[in-house]
Each structure stands twice: as C-alpha cells, then as structure tokens.
Specification:
By secondary structure, this protein is α+β, with helices and mostly antiparallel strands. It has 2 domains: about 1-150, Jelly Rolls (Sandwich), CATH 2.60.120; about 155-270, Homeodomain-like (Arc Repressor Mutant, subunit A, Orthogonal Bundle), CATH 1.10.10. The chain has helices at about 95-100, 120-130, 140-150, 155, 160-170, 175-185, 190-200, 205-220, 225-235, 240-250, 255-260, 265-270, and strands at about 1-10, 15-30, 40-45, 50, 60, 65-70, 75-90, 110-115. Strands 1, 2, 3, 4, 5, 6, 7 and 8 form an 8-stranded antiparallel sheet that branches. A hairpin with a 2-residue loop joins β1 (about 1-10) and β2 (about 15-30). α2 runs antiparallel to α3 (about 140-150) and α8 (about 205-220) crosses α9. The longest helix is centred in the last third of the chain and has 19 residues, at about 205-220. The two termini are about 25 Å apart.
C-alpha cells in the first residue's frame, strides 16, 4: 500500500485528505483506530471494496461517496480486497451536522452513502454515481456537489459545540465534563444534549476517543518508553486505568498494539490532526 497526503481546495475550504493506493489479493484484515472525526470516503478503481466487520457494515464499493459517523465501541476491524484507491477526509462532527442537517447520533456506528442522506443534493449525487466514472476528488461533477453542500463558515463558527469539540481535541481528551460545561457556559445536561445532537456521543465518551488516540500516538512516538511513562504522558492515573480503557476502546492490549501496528494505522496516527 502507498499512502499520500493532499489538500482539496474548494470555495474557501482547504481540506486535507489521505489517499491510499492498494492492490489486495484475497481479503486483508486489519485493526484500525476509532476516529474523533466523521470520515468521508471515496473509493476509486476497478474492484476495490471495504467493510467494517465488527460493526457489521455492508461492503463499500467504488464510485460512491460514503460518510462514517463516530464509532462508539472498540477499534475498527477492516476487511478489504481488490485494486484501487481510497480517499479519506476527516470532517469535524459539528461541520458534518451543519452539512447533513441531521442528528449525528443517527450516524453513530454506521457507514452510509451520502446520497442516501440528502434530499435535492442526494439526487444529484446519485445521478453522478450512476452515470459517471469517478476517478478522483477533482472530478468536475463531484466538485459541483461539494460546492453545493459545504456550509458557510458562519453556520458553525458561532456554534459553541464546534469550539467545545476543538477544545477537547487540543487537550487530547484530558478534560472533564464539569470543566467543559463551565467553560462554555451551559449545564452538564445541556452540554450533553447538544453533543448527542451535533457530535453523536456524550461529551465524556467523545473525549475518551481522543484520549485513546493520543495514547496510541504516544506509543508510536516513544517506542522505548514504559507503559507507566506513557500513562503519565497521556494523563492517566496509572497503567491499570490506561490498560482498561485501551482494551475497551481499542480492542487489544497496549503491548499488542505496540507490536502489531499496521503501516496504514501508523500513517493514520501521523495525520490524525487533519480535519475540515
């Protein structure tokens, strides 16, 4: 697999993306971290397809645009085969809310064709997927589609949950619900209600995703460090708490992750800050 980074420029957006070129004979299975962002996928080529086994998603195939909501339990176990390329764009969940205009909790644990979620724009996209062969994000029809659905920045820049999500990201998940509610001037109940609507999970569950991803990144950056040192850097009380959360949210022990990280996962962890 060859993995590259690029920037998709459209309207006043500069959207970083990852592009993996793959040729897989038979079926390849790999463990992939959960993401704190929505993931927009476009698969191109002759035969490539992908599915998330442990979340029981159907096969995602070429020439269709997909979006994945947040995944609530465990890492992703991917099954892939065929030849082609996979684009992956990380979309800030609150921007996804304003783009799709639906409660984000309806997307949790799912990968869905975007054309099935939208009304007028969905018809336009379905016609593209049926009648055109999409070879890249720069397809003219696809650019027209993105131009029509990308929200104006004023739609989300004034949304306090947009900034609460960014605060959690910048703190690598090391933030409590009381601190968040105080900082953004709302009760804990109101904060969680808005998080469920615009992010898909409670604020606490969302913060835990970023804390685990930060831990994974630390394990990659400091391969010689002990788990005690990693736990301290990641903001855990001790190694036992780290190991418990890691097994629950990543599906394996920290030591197993250190030994068996796939190249694709390493690339993902290097680029995890990139998002719309």
């Amino acid at each position: 697999m060859v993995f590259n980074l690029g920037v998709y420029k459209i309207k006043d957006f500069r959207i970083p993306y990852g592009l993996g070129q793959m040729e897989i004979h038979g079926c390849h299975r790999t463990i992939f971290p959960r993401s704190g962002d929505l993931i927009l996928n476009l698969y191109v080529g002759d035969s490539f397809r992908n599915r998330i086994i442990n979340y029981n998603t159907p096969w995602a195939t070429t020439n269709k645009l997909y979006i994945s909501g947040l995944y609530s339990q465990g890492a992703l176990e991917l099954q892939q085969n065929g030849k082609g390329a996979a684009y992956a764009i990380k979309v800030h969940p609150v921007i996804g809310y304003h783009l799709l205009k639906l409660p984000m909790h309806e997307l949790v644990d799912k990968q869905v064709q975007i054309s099935h979620l939208l009304e007028t724009e969905g018809v336009f996209l379905r016609n593209i997927e049926i009648s055109e062969k999409i070879t890249s994000l720069n397809d003219t029809h696809l650019r027209d589609f993105f131009s029509s659905i990308l929200p104006e920045k004023s739609k989300y820049i004034l949304d306090p949950i947009y900034h609460a999500v960014n605060f959690i990201k910048n703190r690598d998940g090391c933030v409590g619900i009381h601190e968040l509610s105080s900082r953004f001037c709302m009760s804990e109940r109101t904060l969680n209600r808005h998080f469920l609507l615009k992010v898909g999970l409670s604020a606490q569950a969302y913060a835990k995703i970023w804390k685990i991803e930060h831990t994974m990144r630390l394990i990659q950056i400091y391969p010689q460090s002990s788990l005690d040192e990693i736990a301290f850097k990641a903001g855990y009380y001790d190694t036992a708490h780290l190991a418990r959360d890691f097994r629950e949210k990543a599906g394996l022990a920290p030591s197993s992750f250190r030994k068996n990280t796939s190249p694709m996962t390493k690339d993902y962890l290097k680029t995890q800050r990139f998002s719309v």
